[in-house]
Amino acid sequence: MLDIRTYQPKQYSDLIERIWVLESGNEATDVLIPPSQYMQLLVPLEGCEYNWNGRPNGKNVLEGISLQTHCVHYPAGTKLLGIRFYPFGAFPFLQCEGKDLLNQMMEVTLPGKPGLEAVNDEELLNEVYHMLHVLYDEFSYQRIKPLKDYYQTVRWSEDSMSIEEYCKLNGTNYTTLNRKFSIITGLSTKKFERLVKFRKSLCNLIDSSDKLTEIGADAGYFDQAHFIREFKLFLHCTPSTYQSLIQSADKDTQIINYNFRLF
Fold first, then answer.
1. Structural domains of the chain, count
2. pLDDT at residue 263, rounded to an integer
3. pLDDT reported for residue 258
4. Domain span at residue 100?
5. Which residue among 29, 74, 88, 152 has the highest number of C-beta atoms inside a 10 angstrom radius?
6. Residues 117 and 177 in one domain
């Protein structure tokens, strides 16, 4: 069973959603990671390797926004550090363009070797914050501010708001915002809006006892047919079928259920 320890960021909290450390212990584990609007910096610790979509990896990589499900195999003894960025959050540190990262991961060069000297998670986190401080670029941060403002409104608003409504309400130029979004995230604002709706519905599907009609409406879908069509676009099955898959997951490990929340 995976041991995943998560930490809320004490620095750069407007760019980083969480920091996590994963250990597989004495057993290998396979995990399905659904489409996600987050980017992740993944740092293998203690010389370990894991498999991402069948490809071995033991290097530091930045994982882009994903419109696909990924299969990850963690061999026994895997130890991995992850920094989960908001869709725009990695850019001020690594300046990688989203079009090169969509559904992919890219090897990145980091200052030093995080985790090399750390004997516990507290020391590891201190090394992470030092690394981020070295990488941070203020000019790049200013470039992503319009995206950050839009995301905070769309992601956390109780009411569903279209990109057109947001731009009109905030006096933002749609064309400019869409162009920046495509550069930084690899997605147009329209595609990103659809991904966020899907993620909202997926989280509610896992965490709430609401009926599927309520879950679809809360995520911003027009009707049940719209909800089912979009859900199948991302996961190739209906919400009810996926809900059954989650409910039939191993009751002891809950590996599918838990990792959907985290990843």
1. 2
2. 44
3. 47
4. 3-137
5. 88
6. no
